[in-house]
Design goal:
With about 290 residues, the protein is an alpha/beta fold. About 30% of the residues lie in helices and about 20% in strands.
Length: about 290
C-alpha cells in the first residue's frame, strides 16, 4: 500500500510529525473518569504499538509509515495516564493497564488477534496483556523493557525540570536527560526529539511507577504462549554493560524467537535508528 501524499516518508521536523498525526484517524473510548485516545493509520492486519513511560503515541512517529507501506493497520493509544488519556480506573502502574486496554480493543477490533509491540514501559504492559489474554496477541515484540531482573543495580540520575519555566535553561536540562536515558548519539537529540519529549513530560500522570525496578517480567515471560521477539538499542542506558544477559532473559518465554541489537542506538531505538528498527520489526512480524 502506498503512503498517502500528506504522510511524509522521513520524519525530521514537528511539521512532519503533525502531518503524520493529521493522516491518522482519532478514536476516543471510555477510560476511568475520562477517555483514552487512540489513533489509526492504514489498512490490513492490525498491529498495536505501546509507547514508553512519560510518552505518548509520538514515541512511534518515525515508524508508522513503514508499517503502513507494508500493508498494516497501525493502532497506537496514548496509554491511560499519559498524553491525552485519562488515568486508569484503578492503580498507577503497568499492571493497571491490561484491563482498560483489552476493553478498548474489544470496542475497536472485537476479538481479532493483533501483533503487539511495546517500548519500555509499554513493553511491560504488552507482556502483561499477552499473559492475561493469550488469544488476543498473535506475536509480541518488546523493546527496551525494564523489569527483567538482569541489571538490579542500575540507577540513572535525571536532572529535575518541573521548577523551570519554558526557555533555554529547561531545554538544556531536557537535552541532558535525553542523553542520559533515551538517546545514545548527540546528533540524535535534535529539535524534533526535544519538542516531542518536552510535550510529553508534563502529561505524565503516572509518576509513582515502581514495577520497572523489579524483576516482574522475569516471572511473567514464562507464562506467554505467543512468539516473542526483542529489538534493543545496543547502547541502551538501562542495559549498559549487561547486554549479553538480554537474550537469556528473553528466552524465558517459551516462544522466544529472536533478539536484534541495533548498533548506534540507545533506549529510544525506534526513533534514533528508525530505518534499522523498522527492518528488524518487519522481520519479527513476518507476513501480515
Amino acid at each position: 500500500m502506498r503512503l498517502e501524499p500528506e504522510l511524509p516518508a522521513r520524519i525530521r521536523s514537528i511539521a512532519d510529525a503533525e502531518a503524520i498525526e493529521r493522516a491518522g484517524t482519532r478514536h476516543e473510548l471510555p477510560c476511568g473518569d475520562g477517555t483514552m485516545a487512540w489513533r489509526r493509520w492504514g489498512e490490513g492486519a492490525p498491529v498495536v504499538l505501546l509507547h514508553g513511560g512519560s510518552g505518548s503515541w509520538n514515541h512511534w512517529v518515525r515508524n508508522i509509515g513503514a508499517l503502513v507501506r507494508a500493508g498494516r493497520q497501525v493502532w497506537i493509544p496514548d496509554l491511560p495516564g499519559f498524553g491525552e488519556s485519562a488515568r486508569p480506573p484503578r492503580g498507577g502502574d503497568a499492571d493497571a493497564l491490561p484491563g482498560p486496554m483489552e476493553a478498548a480493543l474489544q470496542q475497536l477490533l472485537g476479538d481479532a488477534p493483533v501483533d503487539l509491540v511495546g517500548f519500555s514501559f509499554g513493553s511491560m504492559v504488552a507482556v502483561f496483556m499477552a499473559a492475561q489474554r493469550p488469544e488476543r496477541v498473535r506475536r509480541l515484540v518488546i523493546s527496551g523493557a525494564p523489569a527483567l531482573g538482569i541489571n538490579p543495580e542500575w540507577k540513572l540520575e535525571l536532572k529535575p525540570w518541573t521548577h523551570l519555566p519554558p526557555g533555554d535553561e529547561l531545554d538544556a536540562v531536557l537535552r541532558e536527560n535525553l542523553a542520559t536515558l533515551m538517546l545514545a548519539r548527540p546528533e540524535s537529540i535534535d529539535a524534533l526529539a526535544l519538542a516531542l519529549h518536552a510535550a510529553n513530560l508534563p502529561r505524565d500522570r503516572m509518576k509513582l511507577r515502581r514495577l520497572a525496578k523489579t524483576d516482574i517480567l522475569r516471572h511473567t515471560l514464562p507464562q506467554l504462549t505467543c512468539p516473542v521477539h526483542g529489538i534493543w538499542g545496543a547502547e541502551d542506558a538501562l542495559y549498559r554493560g549487561v547486554q549479553q544477559r538480554l537474550e537469556p532473559a528473553l528466552a524465558l518465554a517459551p516462544g522466544f524467537r529472536s533478539l536484534a541489537l541495533i548498533p548506534g542506538a540507545g533506549h529510544w531505538v525506534q526513533f534514533e535508528r528508525a530505518e534499522a528498527f523498522d527492518r528488524a520489526l518487519a522481520e519479527a512480524l513476518g507476513p501480515a
